[in-house]
Amino acid sequence: MDWMNQLSGILEQYAGAAAAPAQSNVQDDFDQIAQSAPPSELADGLAAAFRSDKTPDFGQMAAQLFSNSSGQERAGILNTLISVAGPLILSQVLSRRTGSNAGGGLSSLIDRLTSGQQTHITPEQAEQIPAEAVQEVAAQAEKKDPSVIDQVSSFYAQHPTLVKTLGAAALSIALSKIAQRQQGV
Question: Please, which residues have CB within 8 angstroms of residue 119's CB and are 6 or more apart in sequence?
């Protein structure tokens, strides 16, 4: 909790029952917190942002993060989602979204996922998957098991620079949740 003492001035700005309004320095504040706070604290804050009615739905936010991720990060988030929803969901979404337009690599991936020959996505395969497919898979995974939000939050808490791409509202909500935990709310 030593990190909280060092950053209490920042967190006080975001304390309260509701998320603080978006502030011009929210990205800088988030950077400072992310450098010191344990990933579990960031994950809780991010989960609050994913669940908030003041941000886009979870699927949209997951797709946005996916779009800004590296191949390795894309594979990580896809594997997190299919660990909950199953690889068949991804193959069905990809088949529906790409139809006969699926290129050789993507078509082969769909076949391997459908047949159960493959249950994990490689970074190279992840680069071929459109963000819109991730949005749909994330939404389906959330319906199947709402705790997927916590799993995705834990994954992205390890990549706080990416989290900043969600924008000021999401960051304010995340910081507000961290501040509330500091106060024991």
Answer: 82, 87, 113
